[in-house]
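S.,

As promised, the 6-O-phosphono-beta-D-fructofuranose run. Input:
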Amino acid sequence: MAKKVTKIGVLTSGGDAPGMNAAIRAVVRTALYHDVEVYGILRGYSGMVENDMIKMDSKSVSKIIQLGGTVLKTARCKEFYEPEGRAKAYNNLKKHGIDGLVVIGGDGSFKGAQQFSNEFDIPCIGLPGTIDKDIAGTDFTIGFDTAVNTAVEAIDKIRDTMEAHNRLFVVEVMGRDAGYIALHSGMATGAENILIPERKANLPELIQSLSQAEKNKKYVNLIVVTEGDEYGGADGISNYLRLSLPGADIRTAILGHIQRGGSPTANDRIIASRMGYHAVQCLLEGRYNVMVGIVNDEMRYTPLDKAVKAKQSINDEWLQIVEALH
Ligand code: F6P
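Predicted complex:
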């Protein structure tokens, strides 16, 4: 029988994602609902290593459900990846009597959580908080929907000016080495081409189709590319296109960190609330060291090591649709 968790720590780690605040709120309020104390750990694992933690009450998470960023701040903490750093972190948790952790972050954060729970008697629950959606065991990650909607809003605006000037535009979106933001935002904006790291782009074929489009007097072409694409994102692709299509009027736009900010969509707030609630339930019910996800609208619990190793696969059907509709 697992030891009962009596005090929970919650932190956000890695790149921030819209909806993290809604998840923090859900963790804090659910813990308090069960009369369990809860501490907010500041700046991700750095707050654990440096003993920077604050006791949370219901009011400390008031009016944050609609806010982007994270009220607990976030960081990528190098020290935590060393055994000495984790030992310090453990001692600091013990000082506060914290015996269960909720980690809101991406796969790097889960690796840290898994390592920590292997070494010390502190169960960890992961909540997938990343705009990249590059984690297995959940249909959506907290922040992805907002990031896609932000990208769509920006790309729609780019299309207006692109159409006015008969231009070819290469728009780079975030996602690191995962193409989901590109795939979703590209489909939603009717992009003529979407380039993602998961599929090797056939550049000669792309050039041929763009030349053919030019011959047919279709000058407007929107290419959405993931930053981690093998050809070097928007700059790499546009340099290549300029060499092969000297007549084309080519511009690039790198959307960058605007995709990480802003008020979370209703969907991100809802999944964050559901996941945050179930993270605490897991700790109270002895379901330890899992990531809480949602698959087909049902809660899914994936051991942290599986959530970190695997990626969701790109659905071929999506690529066929993009090809047919462009
Ligand atoms: O993982 C989220 C993410 O926004 C990626 O899409 C991007 O590659 C990276 O973080 C950027 O990180 P930083 O904010 O450290 O520049």
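The chain has a mean pLDDT of 94. Residues 15, 106, 130-132, 174-176, 227, 260 surround 6-O-phosphono-beta-D-fructofuranose (CB under 6 Å).

- D.
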